[in-house]
Amino acid sequence: MDDESPIRLLIGSTLERWGYQVHLASSGNQAKEMIDRDTFDLVLTDVMMQDGDGLTLLDWVRTKQPGLPVVMVSSASDIGMAIDSMHRGACDYLLKPFDHRKLFETIRRALDQRLGMLKAREYQLKLKQELRIRTDMLRWAVEDLQRTHDLMLLTLSDALDLRDSETEGHSKRVTAYSIALARALKISPLEIKVLAQGALLHDVGKIAVPDAILRKPGRLSIEEQDIMRTHCVRGHEMLRKIPFLADASEIVLAHHERFDGTGYPHGLRGSKIPLGARIFAVADSLDAITSDRPYHKARTFAAAREEIQTGAGAQFDPEVVVAFTKIACDVWPQLRAETICEERDHTVLREILSNLPDLSGLQDLIAMSFSDAQEPAIH
């Protein structure tokens, strides 16, 4: 761009002989229209013109197309103007008159810089795309792993319930109840996830309990009760070795502790009992009271509410009981009904599990898994 026609034509023809495609503009406004309309690799502009100056065009280009290089040309050897041009984004500054070699070197250098910038931008774009793809792949892998974990936990829960047919569906119900209570207490999603895992697998240690004790129809002897009570420790020892279930194993260990310290296996009291285990204790009792058991018939959820309120401060954490009583009574039968529907949806899976050999045969394998571990103390 130059408002002096001879200079404009001279530079244009020289650049064309060197193989460049050249567009000529006699004013800043004409140059802006051309830049808006077409794509260019370089702008070569005079500084001083009749309808404004090249610095105005330079500022406009920097705003519209920041990556488009601009070479300033001037007949005035004004160092201040040259410095100002460079500060405002010009890639070079030529003084008239200049020889062809100097012009060629300046343009070649400016175009090389632009090419390098475009390659760097393209490389960054590819890196971002690859990072996005890899991030998506990682997210999909994590989600798939999580689904696999969840399916494994549900399958194990079904296997446990089938072994102890008197409490069939119990694990899923107490999990649903525990989640509802946890939400009422406004604990974090991560804590709810850990609680759900612990609730679903709270009785996993019963795999190590002999069938003669687990399925005994009558009252257990003191010795048999002691063996049955080891399921908390056994379950904890199994799950704590699995990284994504390590936190849930603490709930499994403490799910029979009582708020007043009279529970087992360690007689923990009050806040020393993990919050998840305190929440689970209420959910577990709610299901036990409202389900048929050999020693009692199912009672109503209203009756269960009264009994749990009576146990506040002794068996149960009073704060958890308060949250429990604030939940509408009709919520619990709805949750129970939903778990029953879910059980029907898993009919095929349950039929497969029911055809498995007696799980008591796993006891030798389980015993081996504890042979290298120190037996935890039972207070």
Index terms:
379 residues, two-stranded antiparallel ribbon, Hypothetical protein af1432, three-stranded parallel β-sheet, 5 strands, 17 helices, mainly alpha, 4% strand
Description:
This protein folds into 2 domains: 94 residues, Response regulator (Rossmann fold, 3-Layer(aba) Sandwich); 221 residues, Orthogonal Bundle (Hypothetical protein af1432), CATH 1.10.3210. Helix content is 60%, strand content 4%. It is mostly helical and 379 residues long. The strands form 2 sheets. The protein has a 3-stranded parallel β-sheet, sandwiched between helices. Strands 2-3 form a two-stranded antiparallel sheet.
Bulk shape: rod-shaped
The profile of the biggest β sheet is: 3 strands, parallel
Question: Which series of helices and strands comes N to C?
Answer: HHEEEHEHEHHHHHHHHHHHHH
Mean pLDDT: 82
User: Low-confidence segments, ≥5 residues, pLDDT <50?
Assistant: 345-379
Radius of gyration, taken over Cα atoms and rounded to an integer in Å? 39 Å
- % residues in beta strands: under 5%
Number of domains: 2
Total beta strands: 5
